[in-house]
Design brief:
Blueprint lengths: L6 E6 L3 E6 L7 E6 L6 E7 L18 H8 L12 H12 L5 H15 L4 H18 L4 E6 L5 E7 L1 H6 L6 E8 L7 E8 L5 E9 L4 H15 L6 E4 L3 H10 L4 E4 L1 H12 L4 H12 L3 H14 L3 H8 L1 H4 L15 H9 L8 H24 L7 H14 L3 E4 L4 E6 L2 E6 L4 E2 L3 H5 L4 H9 L14 H7 L34 H9 L10
Parallel strand pairs: 7-10, 10-11
Antiparallel strand pairs: 1-2, 2-3, 3-4, 5-6, 6-9, 7-8, 8-9, 12-13, 13-14, 14-15
Helix pairs in contact: 1-3, 2-3, 6-7, 9-10, 15-17
Length: 526
């Protein structure tokens, strides 16, 4: 194509093919024979020299079909977020190959490239999904995959938790942020996510799910899978927005866990209900929600409610323990919002346009990159704490330099911070500011005491912040899955006996029927 010559098929059948230049007097030709009992062909004759006139060359190429154009430009779409318009395809083919395309050929070529790199059409992608999940389990043993279909053999729910995430959660603070967002492919659906913070305050993905919509049944199904994989304990905290389906699902799936509300979602509800745009009141609300001790909370809460009549009754009806740090019965640490969930969803904003199997594969690639990069960073850390926590401790040490410490006895100290006094008890690991006990990290006042005594500040930090736990969080490896973009190497749904223990189905007959005729596996929701 680059040399601007054209060819045509002169003869062909199932065993050989002869291709010649379209000019009748040109000697250029290629002959290939099919190898016996093989899908490969061997070139048996090739005359490489063109003898046709130079003026016979043209920029309008008959061989520049949409499929060929798609093969030429497919590497431009490696990044799912890449925007490549038909006009861009026309300019690219003109610049690289000297070929002029019509708009329609450029558009169809782009669609062929999309189909190639997105593992087929949306319908084909659903048919590839069971085989892909099987390979995911084979390459990442210990991962948990649940795929449910309806009685009509239609896709209903999907849940994935990588083995590396399951292993790493034991070394993260027990606060899980959950959220849902819409998929943008042909058949839509909803993406459910569960994430937490690692020792370095970065997003640690736990599990993803796909369902038909954000309803009671879907949220309950997803959260029950999360509980089955990650367990439940009295210290566990679930943070979410105020969606009614989430509340009922958390009560059913995690009856012993504490369910906290994202303070920013509640703020938006508050502003909508009272039609308030007062920035100062917003600041009072945020400060009250994040306050560590009750005295500070009551001052801020009183100021807020005095300026906004009706806010007191509304916020108390929600439950003070669900949106304030000072009233929460469990440690929320510094996780007062669902920002980490929403940030994770934002990273996937372009990926959510892909067909289901390509989408899952992109999520795996993202997690694979994150784990490798953060494993390298954690292993290269030289301090006892993670990089972010070490920086935070250093800032607190600087502020502690200006504080006066008065010793009461071996363990009790009075710390003067400006016009305020705080009591620090090193035997009980408490400070009256309550940051020490709620965040499990030395506050300014504790570090002021450390400066005057022989206490090691690192011994006062929770293990969740240490370099050791940071390294252990990312010790697991998310392994790649072999795939050829044009001839997918995954087994079809017929390998069902190997999947019975991980794929939940409505009946054995459904999957056996799918194994015999994979085309029956529907590509859309109910």
């Amino acid at each position: 194509m680059q040399k601007k010559f054209q060819y045509k098929v002169f003869k062909s059948n199932t065993s050989f093919i002869v291709v010649r230049c379209v000019h009748p007097s040109c000697s250029w030709r290629v002959r290939a024979n099919k190898l016996i009992e093989s899908e490969y062909w061997m070139v048996t004759k090739h005359v490489d020299k063109h003898t046709c006139p130079t003026d016979f060359k043209t920029t309008r190429r008959r061989q520049a079909t949409s499929w060929v154009v798609g093969e030429c430009i497919k590497r431009r779409f490696i990044n799912p977020g890449r925007v490549f318009r038909p006009r861009d395809v026309m300019d690219d083919m003109k610049q690289r190959y000297g070929v002029e395309l019509s708009y329609s050929v450029a558009w169809r070529g782009r669609e062929c490239a999309y189909e190639n790199l997105r593992l087929g059409t949306p319908e084909q992608s659903y048919n590839l999904l069971p085989g892909y999940l099987h390979m995911l389990m084979q390459t990442n043993p210990g991962s948990v995959v649940n795929l449910e279909v309806t009685d009509g053999n239609k896709f209903q729910y999907l849940f994935i938790a990588f083995a590396a995430s399951i292993q790493g959660f034991s070394y993260c603070r027990p606060v899980i942020s959950i959220d849902a967002t819409h998929l943008k492919g042909k058949y839509r659906g909803v993406l459910f996510t569960a994430v937490c913070h690692d020792a370095n305050q970065q997003i640690f993905p736990l599990a993803i799910g796909v369902g038909d919509s954000e309803n009671d049944a879907a949220w309950t199904w997803f959260l029950k899978r999360v509980k089955d994989v990650f367990g439940e304990n009295p210290a566990l905290v679930i943070v979410s927005d105020r969606h009614r389906s989430i509340r009922s699902a958390v009560e059913e799936a995690f009856p012993r866990a504490f369910h906290g509300i994202c303070i920013y979602h509640l703020l938006n509800n508050l502003k909508t209900k009272f039609k308030s745009k007062n920035k100062e009141l917003e600041q009072h609300y945020i400060a009250a929600a994040k306050a560590y001790n009750l005295q500070e909370f009551h001052v801020l809460f009183y100021t807020l409610c005095s300026a906004l009549p009706g806010a007191k009754e509304y916020l108390e009806s929600v439950g003070l323990d669900r949106w304030t740090r000072s009233h929460a019965p469990c440690r929320r640490y510094n996780i007062m919002t669902t920002n980490i969930s929403e940030s994770f969803n934002a990273v996937l904003v372009k990926v959510r346009e892909l067909p289901i199997t390509a989408f899952v594969n992109e999520v795996r690639l993202l997690c694979q990159r994150w784990f490798q990069q953060r494993r390298t960073k954690a292993n290269g850390c030289s301090s006892r704490m993670s990089t972010d926590v070490e920086k935070k401790l250093e800032e607190r040490r600087d502020r502690a330099q200006t504080m006066d410490v008065i010793c009461a006895d071996q363990y009790t100290f009075d710390v003067v911070d400006g016009d305020r006094n705080y009591c620090v008890d090193m035997a009980l690991w408490t400070c009256t500011c309550r940051k020490f006990q709620l965040d499990q990290l030395p506050c300014d006042h504790v570090l002021a005491v450390v400066r005057k005594t022989q206490y090691d500040p690192y011994d006062l930090c929770s293990l969740y912040y240490t370099r050791e736990f940071w390294c252990e969080t990312y010790r697991g490896v998310i392994q790649p899955i072999p795939c050829n973009s044009r001839s997918v190497l995954w087994p079809n749904i017929g390998r069902f006996l190997d999947l019975c223990h991980i794929i939940h189905i409505t009946s054995i007959e459904t999957v056996v029927r799918g194994a015999l005729n994979i085309g029956e596996y529907s590509s859309c929701f109910n």
